[in-house]
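_Per-residue structure_
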Amino acid sequence: ARRIIDGGRGVADYDTDARNPEPGYAWDLDRQERDLPEEEYRAHLSILDEMEEEDLEALDLSRAGDYILWAAAQAFEDLGRADAALPILRRIARSESRHPALSYPDILVHLAEALKDRGEYPEALESLERAEREDPRLVDACRDRRAEVLILQGSAEEGLRLFEKAVDDRLTRIENAVL
C-alpha cells in the first residue's frame, strides 16, 4: 500500500492493486511504470514518496508537466500544505496539454474539495460542473459535493433539493438494475 491523497478527504492508505488506478490517475501503477518514460515515472514517485518539505519547496515547477505537478500537489497536501497545493491544482485544471496517465475529472473533483474547504464556493462549483461534463460517471459524486457547496454558501434549499434528486436518481438506477 502507498499513502496518497484521497479526493480532498485526507491522506489514506490504499491497496495498490494494479487493476484499479488511484484517484487522480487514469492508469494503474503497473501501466505508469511500463508506459511512461522511466525518468518521468521515477521523478513522480520520488516527489510522492521521498521528498522532504524543504526539497519540495525548492522544486522548480515552472516548466513541469501535469504528471509531475500532480505528484507535487499530493506531496504538499500530504504535508498539510494545502496553501501550496492549491495553485498547482489550479494550474493542472487549466492545462491544455493533458497527460494520459492522469484522470483530469478526478483532479477537478479534488480541486473542488480544496476550494470548498477554503470557502471559494463559486470556483468549487465550476470545477464540479467541469468534472461531471468530462466524466459522466462522476455524476453522483459531483452532485453530492455540489449540494454540499450550495448549502455551505447559503443556498440551503437548492442544496437540499439537489441532494434529494441525487438520492432519487440513485434509487431509480438501483431499482432498474434489480428488475
In short: Residues 1-18 have pLDDT under 50 and may be disordered. Residues 28 and 135 are 18 Å apart (CA to CA). The first strand starts at residue 2 and ends at 5.
